[in-house]
Fold these 2 entries.
Entry 1:
Amino acid sequence: MPNNIQKEKSADSKKICVISVTSGKGGVGKTNIVANLAYLLSQMKKKTLIFDADCGLANIDLILGLTPKYNLYHVLTGEKTLKETIINGPGGIKILPSSSGIQELTSLSKGQKFALQDELNSLHSRPDFMLIDTSAGINENVMYFNMVAGDIIVVVTPEPTSLTDAYALIKVLYQRHAKKRFRLLVNMVKTEDEAKEVFIRMAQATNHFLNLSIEHLGYVLYDENLALAVKKQKLLAELYPGSPSMDCLRDIAVKLCQPSQEPEDHDGIIRFFN
Ligand SMILES: Nc1ncnc2c1ncn2[C@@H]1O[C@H](COP(=O)(O)OP(=O)(O)O)[C@@H](O)[C@H]1O
Ligand SMILES: [Mg+2]
């Protein structure tokens, strides 16, 4: 008995690593990155919950061909508990489905936000990781999910508009919400060098105009297999685990499991590929 109590206690106090995956511009690959990273983390024996916070189209359940009965809306209205709403995805990942089309969700009230936090804290089987797939841009909801996250991954592509929009997002989170730590993930690159160039461009801008250093989390190669996987409503990680882009995602998953050595305040230093 005392052992059981001990176990319960340690499960309760276990820290959930909450990571938001966000972007200034839509269509940069957040949802696919979140889904594949969650799968890889689960393979690494880390319980992972995807919080689908994008109420728009092409959300997680759609790309995985899942048809959830309930979603975030039912949790917020108190009709269902979080436990009743969370569904199982491939490879043991858990998914809290979003509610596409439900307009009320585009801006949560304070009460709803607190209720959601309470529910998360009282989950019986707490995850190791919670990956939040946010929508793009700088609306109030995106800000909220980035605020509650301990870590923010900003996804960009080499496209100039993706960079300018990501810069605008970082600027708002830093200046208005005092967020200081941003990990850049450069998606859809042809080479590692291209990713480095994109990162340097972004880091120079944040350093110069905001006096803020950002971190290079990693890059993901452009991969035609990804579109094939999406068409089949399967994960790239399941269908093409040997794809070069999967090696990139694996490196990122490993990095996420490493405890951060960096102090919050590391102004002036650009951390690059370390
Ligand atoms: N590394 C990549 N290589 C090729 N296509 C990609 C890659 N990442 C994402 N895509 C494609 O880009 C599109 C948008 O991806 P998605 O994950 O829905 O973006 P977001 O969630 O940011 O809107 C999808 O059609 C997806 O297949
Ligand atoms: Mg998406």
Entry 2:
Amino acid sequence: MKTVIIYFSESGKTKAVAKTLSKNLDTDLIEVRDLKNRNGFVGKVFSSIDAFRESKTNTVPSRVDLQNYGLIYFGTPTWAGNATPAIITIIDKCDLRGKDIVLFATMNSSGGRSAINRMKEKVESRGARVVETFTIKTKDKSVEKVGEDSENIAKLLDLSLYNY
Ligand SMILES: Cc1cc2nc3c(=O)[nH]c(=O)nc-3n(C[C@H](O)[C@H](O)[C@H](O)COP(=O)(O)O)c2cc1C
């Protein structure tokens, strides 16, 4: 059994967290892309509405085979106090029975905890056990700084403990 980090990132901050953790913890890494056009002001408004309503979206990959993984990280930016449509869509297609889960959310200032709580409800209802969660504030931080912060959190929470 192995460990995998599954994440969505629109502007690169969550990607910086996922890549740093993957390197530090020696895990597989899967980026989920959202096929919906979310550009511009209107795109952002609809993104918030979609996240708030938990609207499903089309993603690439459309589903992930988790058979070989014992520990799965799900990482997302916070949108309107919730997880992103891409991550919610993927979680709702996964067979998570018996899996250990780590959840993380990046955010400007607030709402990451409620995003995590919602993801926790979803993964637990699909048969998984959440072993750790964390949020990272990214406002005004470079991707390098976000990477550094992630490295520190990984040490602080001793995330390697959960590795498969
Ligand atoms: C549509 C949209 C909604 C957002 N809503 C929130 C929010 O509710 N709270 C918050 O602190 N940040 C919010 N943000 C900021 C992002 O969560 C934050 O910048 C995140 O780290 C971006 O991650 P990414 O670079 O991986 O896309 C929002 C950003 C977008 C685009």
